[in-house]
Design goal:
460 residues, alpha/beta, Helicase, Ruva Protein, domain 3, 3 domains, five-stranded parallel beta sheet, 18 helices, flat
């Protein structure tokens, strides 16, 4: 997939179309916001710092694609991305997560991304170092009796030294075998570094600042020496352990932290789900509504732009893009405090899914439910195919259930598909053998889902 840096808004929408049916307006706004990050970074004048992101508020019932848009945005964007649920936060002074933790999570994500990128850059050097360690474990180099270092024929001025030459030839032979993957199952003994002990807990540390606690634990763990433990593993397993260790040695962590902070500040995206759960709704004061409003007031400075301490350094949230989403069944966007409303200038209303949308959801996306189940059966060597009429009937049943019961959007399709195919999944491979073919027809769908329809009143 192309990096989001080079994707145009239309290309971003095309990528989202592969997984999400409909909701064109929401996709357009998200695509523009994502491209605007790149545009701002390429502004050459002093106004670059003054360009603030247009945060987005997505409004729509559950199961219409709000979270899926966020998930796919994370895949497309070459940027740090975190998804949080507003209902998990509590007002300062109450027990629960504080709102600054989402910014710390964003920085953590950014550090992991930069670290992974740096590891790719040093992968070749690390692989060569690992080969030498494995070779030393298989055929230790011959060492000088006086100096204690490996001796080569160059050090003996070209004088033939049979043992040394034989050792070097053997090592070269085995080096080639390691490169060709001929010794992957050979057992060797390696030293694997381990932390000396578990994380340090502190009595009475509940009131301490979270960042201070993290920094203190990191400092204490850094002071304690890492023990090297001997392990007998195959060459293939050793390569996995050692590659991580050698790559880490070649990476400058200070550089990683600096780059990660910059990346999080300028390209970070925070998706706040269920924001309607912290809106008062009824207009009453007192009780839980006080805490909800408290969470909103705690969120406000983060969304407006503030400075947050993390264990990797200080981050400014002025240019972080915030995308909020909520069903707003009970409350309305206007029930949020006015200051917070003003920080989400782009409002997008997602439409409810139609029966035709359900048919398309079952057939078109790359991760369509029909394709997922076909892949599961294919793993057992069984072929499953769906008639057009069968897909139409599944969509019709799910849509009608949403009308008569709680509307949970496209998630209802999972309930229906599970009921339809669970019996087959149970019988494979004991009764339905590999190389079998299952044809899902309209009559089969009606027959299998009779029980689900009968239990409708009980479900309500």
């Amino acid at each position: 997939m192309l990096s989001a840096t080079f994707l145009t808004p239309q290309q971003i929408v095309k990528e989202l179309d592969k997984y999400i049916i409909g909701q064109h307006e929401a996709k357009r706004n998200v695509a523009i916001a994502l491209r605007n990050r790149w545009r701002r970074m390429n502004v050459t004048s002093d106004i670059q710092d003054e360009i603030v992101p247009n945060n987005i508020l997505m409004i729509g019932a559950t199961g219409v694609g709000k979270t899926e848009i966020a998930r796919r945005l994370a895949k497309i964007a070459d940027a740090p991305f975190v998804k949080v649920e507003a209902s998990k936060f509590t007002e300062v002074g109450y027990v629960g997560r504080d709102v600054e933790s989402m910014v710390r999570d964003l920085v953590e994500q950014s550090v992991n991304m930069v670290k992974a990128h740096k590891k790719e850059e040093v992968q070749e050097k690390a692989a060569l170092a690992v080969e030498e360690i494995i070779l030393d474990a298989l055929i230790p180099p011959m060492r000088s009796k006086t100096a204690g270092f490996p001796v080569t024929t160059e050090e003996t001025n070209g004088t033939p030294t049979s043992d040394i030459e034989l050792n070097e030839r053997t090592r070269n032979l085995f080096r080639e075998k390691i490169k060709n993957g001929e010794l992957e199952d050979r057992k060797i003994e390696i030293h694997v570094k381990q932390n000396s002990g578990p994380g340090v807990g502190m009595i009475g540390a509940g009131m301490m600042d979270e960042v201070s606690m993290m920094n203190l634990q990191e400092m204490l763990s850094g002071m304690m020496p890492k023990k090297a433990k001997k392990r007998k593993v195959t060459v293939g397993e050793a390569r996995k352990f050692l590659l991580e260790e050698e790559a880490a040695k070649l990476i400058d962590m200070d550089e990683v932290k600096e780059e990660a902070i910059r990346k999080a500040e300028n390209a970070g995206i925070i998706f706040i789900d269920e924001i309607d759960k912290i809106a008062s709704g009824t207009g009453k004061k007192g009780g839980p509504d006080v805490s909800r409003e408290g969470v909103q007031r705690d969120l406000l400075p983060i969304v407006e732009g503030s400075t947050v301490n993390t264990k990797y350094g200080v981050i400014k949230t002025d240019h972080v893009l915030f995308v909020a989403a909520g069903a707003f069944h009970i409350s309305k966007p206007s029930d949020l405090i006015p200051e917070l409303q003003g920080r989400f200038p782009i409002r997008v209303e997602l439409t409810n899914l139609t029966r035709e949308d359900f048919v398309r959801i079952l057939k078109e996306p790359k991760n369509a439910l029909t394709k997922q189940y076909q892949a599961l059966f294919d793993a057992e060597g069984v072929t499953v195919s769906f008639d057009e009429e069968a897909i139409d009937e599944i969509a019709k049943t799910a849509f009608e259930f949403n009308l008569e019961m709680e509307n949970i959007g496209a998630r209802r399709l999972q309930t229906v598909m599970s009921r339809l195919l669970n019996e087959f999944l149970f019988d494979v491979p004991d009764k339905i053998f590999p190389d079998s073919q299952i044809q899902i027809t309209r009559d089969m769908v009606i027959g299998k889902l009779k029980g689900l329809v009968a239990n409708k009143d009980l479900s309500e």
